[in-house]
Amino acid sequence: MAYRAWFECINRCGEKYPLDEVIYECKKCGALLEVVHDETELSKHSGEKWKAIFDARYMKPDWPYGSGVWGKKEWVLPGINNENIVSMCEGGSNLFWAERLGKIIGVPDLWIKMCGNSHTGSFKDLGMTVLVSAVKQMIADGKNVSAVACASTGDTSAALAAYAAAAGIQSIVFLPKGKVSHAQLIQPLANGALVLALETDFDGCMKVVQQVCQDNNIYLANSMNSLRIEGQKTVGIEIVQQFDWQVPEWIIIPGGNLGNVSALGKGLRLMGNLGLIDRYPRICCAQAENANPLYQSYLTGFKEKIDVQAKTTLASAIQIGHPVSYDKAVDVLADENFKGVVEQASEDELANATALADTTGTFACPHTGVALAACFKLVEKGIIKPTDRVVVISTAHGLKFTEFKTDYHKGYLNGIESKYANPPISTPADPDAIKRIINERLEKKAREGHGSK
Question: What confidence tens digit (pLDDT) does each residue in 134-167 have?
Fold first, then answer.
């Protein structure tokens, strides 16, 4: 079948552009673009047929279809030649049944989608495989693209650098100086990126990279480039697929630049349009209280876009006050099908939510902590019901944030009451003293009733 896709203005002003054109905003009205698929052609397969196709490919060694993204190639980037696909078997991350944590908060059917269990340790791999593959195809077709560039708070730069290195393309990353974890900083350095540490925040980096990419031989890789969204939208599809095509009641996702929220809705909408699902989950976008422009807008019913000066937050990847994908995210959250909500988490709430989750077997990043804290608050308010199936999307691996975790357990985080601190205990090499410490810990655990949870 002749599957097709193209860029189209999100304002529906009628402008369309081919996917190999170096363009990020509508030439007519200046709005962002989105990738639109020929759903008439896609609908020639029934929903059941698409399920069978996707299930037959899922995590199999048939290049490139074993990837969680490229197994849905017809829905992502149908026109690309397979030899130009740059894939590291992204997607396919596990759904962790957070049974103990769910029982603690009163929602036993709680799951965490572990997107950090990916090649570079974050969900950004899902979008970057598509964008870098598209650039490789452009270069193969004779387009003059000499480098790909992004502004980043860490994870985007890591994904871009790795995929560009695999493709043999130079990457350039713009980072806010001193505001990226060591683990995140070393990734683009190791993968050969040109790393520019700017004395500004993410929003300032974003302004600079947009200006630099006006020179069309440097391709913009931020989420305002909707090719990224095509890969990221597969996370919602994959969640439903992993539940044997059953839709959960809730999906909770942390939001900064808001491309992830719009991507989640885009994938679910396509599933509904093509008959794979007959209902939709509710979506919650979770923001850090110190960087909460979408939450502020939500309080007004999205009547106006509110930008903020983002304050420092432990959830550094979503420390964004001027989200580029605001309009796309609101389009999803305001959709009656999704009944979207926005919740926020204070620094204390996100830190302790992360730590509580870790005591039940996860190793969550602080951004996942924001989503978990939002989940806890929605449960407390009675908005999430005890019988609901809830999926929290974990966006990055906790190993990228070991400084945050170490400081939490040592009590070094200013303004944070570390309720679940578990610092190392210094003790002489005395068996009797060690036995006393062990017995005290076991007795404390028994008193708290953790063994029955």
Answer: 999 999 999 999 999 999 878 899 999 999 999 9
The count of C-alpha atoms lying within 13 angstroms of the C-alpha of 25, restricted to the half-sphere facing its C-beta, is 11
Contacts of 450 (CB under 8 A, 6+ apart): none
What are the helix and strand counts (H, E) for the chain? 17, 13
Q: What is the pLDDT of residue 1?
A: 60
- CATH code of the domain containing 323: 3.40.50.1100
Buried b (16+ CB within 10 A) or exposed e, 259-290: bbbbbbbbbbbbbbebebbeebbbbbbbbbbb
Here the tokens at position 332 are 């999803």
Residue 449 confidence (pLDDT): 72
At 219 the three-state DSSP class reads strand
Q: What is the pTM of this model?
A: 0.94
Amino acid at 396: A
Question: Residue 2: its pLDDT value, please?
Answer: 85
Identity of residue 371: A
Residues spanned by the domain of 334: 95-121+229-410
Backbone φ and ψ for 172, nearest 5 degrees, come out as -130, 125
